[in-house]
Amino acid sequence: MCDQDQNVNNLAKLEFSLSGSEDDKQSEEKEMELEVTHTKGCKEKELAEENLVATSSPNLTNLEHKSMQQQLSLTDFEDIYPPGGSQEVILYTTSLRGIRKTFQDCNTIRFLLRSFKIKYQEKDVSLHLEYREELWKILGGKVIPPKLFIKGRYIGGADEVEGLHEMGWLGKLLDGTPIDFVDVPCKGCAYMRFSICSNCNGSCKVVTNNVDNKNELFIRCPDCNENGLVKCSICC
Predict the structure, then answer these.
(1) Distance between CA atoms of 147 and 141, rounded to whole angstroms?
(2) What stretches of the chain show up as alpha helix (H) in DSSP?
(3) What Cα–Cα distance (Å) separates residue 54 from each residue in 50, 51, 73, 160, 178?
(4) Distance separating alpha carbons of residues 82 and 138, to the nearest angstrom
(5) Which of 57, 72, 129, 199 has the most CB atoms at less than 10 Å from its CB?
(6) Which of 60-69, 134-143, 227-236 is least confident?
């Protein structure tokens, strides 16, 4: 009788153990199902974000696709450049802070170029009207800086340049560019590339020396631009 009771107890324990194992198995399956669902949701979110980036920056997406297939070179970019810029690195910027994003984008590209320690020419469209007209004529419309040109090729704006840098291609595109060994700002303009006109002190007006012109005491200064500035004689 005792042996029978012991067998019954053992069967009860075994049944309880199997029941517990089944419950644990179901719990594990539910956890795995939740994990798979969470992972699937994350993947869908990542794909949606990638599609959004691709839609907003089609040119950058094309460059990414091309860079995965083969090496990217300057010949893959549009063959347009400013006057005298076939072998130069030229960056169009603005120092105006009216539009914060534009100002920050210009600072970002400037910082990237300086980090490579290469020589480049910066053209601030807010300081010199001729630069703005030049840029609009090259690109065929009223575009907003920053815009980068490397050795006769149009690279693009902030999104394109930052994307190339993140993919490791910007440095390769700048290969062969002369190194800038000067690590201090220009004494004449402090990186501004312009200084105050010494002829009119920035007023854009000078006293006329023409005695025949008695009606006008002042004439337009012939040396400076519309902002009373002249190109720096040291670094430009």
Answers:
(1) 13
(2) 2-56, 58-69, 100-115, 129-139, 158-166, 170-173
(3) 6, 5, 21, 12, 34
(4) 7
(5) 72
(6) 60-69
